[in-house]
Amino acid sequence: MTIRHLRIFVAVATVGKMCDAADQLFLSQPTVSQAIKELEEHYEVLLFERLGKKLYITDAGEKLLKYAKNILTEFDNIEKRMLEMSSKKSLSIGATITIGNCILPYAINDIKEVYPDIHISSCISNTKVIEEKLLTSELDIAMIEGNISDPNLISIPFLKDSLVLACNSKHKLAKKEELTIEDLKNTNFVFREKGSGTRELFEDYIQKSKIPINVVLQSNCPGSIKNAILINNFASVISIRLIEEEILNGDITIFRCSKNLLDRTFKIVYHKDKFIDSVMNDFINILKNYEDSHRLDNLPSKKLLVFK
User: Fold this and answer.
1) Tell me, what's the pLDDT at 181?
2) Segments forming the whole domain that contains residue 56
3) pLDDT reported for residue 51
4) Cβ neighbour number for residue 30 with a 10 Å cutoff
5) How many other C-beta atoms are found inside a 10 Å radius of the C-beta of residue 174?
6) In this protein, which residues make up the domain named HTH lysR-type (predicted)?
7) Residue of 51, 192, 213, 48 whose CA lies nearest to 126
8) Residues 77 and 159 reside in one and the same domain
9) For 22-48, what is each residue's pLDDT tens digit?
């Protein structure tokens, strides 16, 4: 028994004739007759009495008619609501904190140009939290700066980024033309929180060098990190994207790693079982077309961080 059977049955019961029901449904009369026969065999009841050329609905047919009308009404409502949902595009985007501040606002604007009525929800947090939300389907897609280890997540590189050592231009480190890793010994640092891709990359390197540094402040807020650099005279390792304006204004001095050891790539991440609809596919293509490394390469960088 299918929705099609019920729809044919209701039509026959309503018009009273197989031929009229067939015309109404744009079917052949044998097809309609066969559907009624299959229903009667399925439920092992007689749905219509056939007297001459007329059909008379039975008590069993009356009961089925009541149920069938309710079922068809609910089915039609489901169809209508689900089709409405498919026409209302939505996308749930996650971003790690650096990307959330530098890339996400522009990415949202770009996808809204393609889908003006789209509903966007977003979450900005560290790599660990975003990864968990992707695995529990709380997010459709994410942009991440850290490393992804879960095999259920697909990771696609899309944009280059550089971490730089940053300090107030009046900081003692800023007076040097060149730094070695030993120059960072006992320097006061403001760091991102545990679970951050930014912190993970720098910690991996600093632990290999066995140089002690003082982490006096942890924050997941780029604004508070910049204030700690500018006001509290702390150093930090931070994405060059987050301090572009301060570099251009001469407020912050940066040291680039000569061997590109602090370079990284932002990644598009989604669950391997995620259905990629047109919205998600267009969003991925938008991100893949981003390219601004030349602008960042030309930012003032008089100092050079040399790791030996």
Assistant:
1) 80
2) 3-87
3) 83
4) 10
5) 18
6) 1-58
7) 192
8) no
9) 888 888 989 989 999 999 999 999 999
144 alpha-carbon distance from chain centroid: 10
3-class SS at 3? Answer: helix
| pLDDT tens string 3-27 | 999 999 999 998 888 888 888 888 8
- Cβ partners under 8 Å of residue 100, min gap 6: 122, 124
Task: Tell me: do 53 and 113 sit in the same domain.
Answer: no
Pair of tokens at residue 298: 């030309």
Number of other CB atoms surrounding residue 260 within 10 Å: 9
CATH number at residue 204: 3.40.190.290
Amino acid at 252: I
CA distance 27 to 31: 7
Residues 110 and 22 reside in one and the same domain? no
pLDDT value at position 293?
65
173: nearest Cα among 17, 303, 73: 303
Q: What is the DSSP letter of 235?
A: B
145 lies in the same domain as 65: no
147 with 99, same domain: the answer is yes
Count of helices and strands (H, E) across the chain: 12, 13
Taking 70 as the pLDDT cut, the residues of the chain under it are 84-87, 293-294, 300-308
Q: Does 180 share its domain with 191?
A: yes
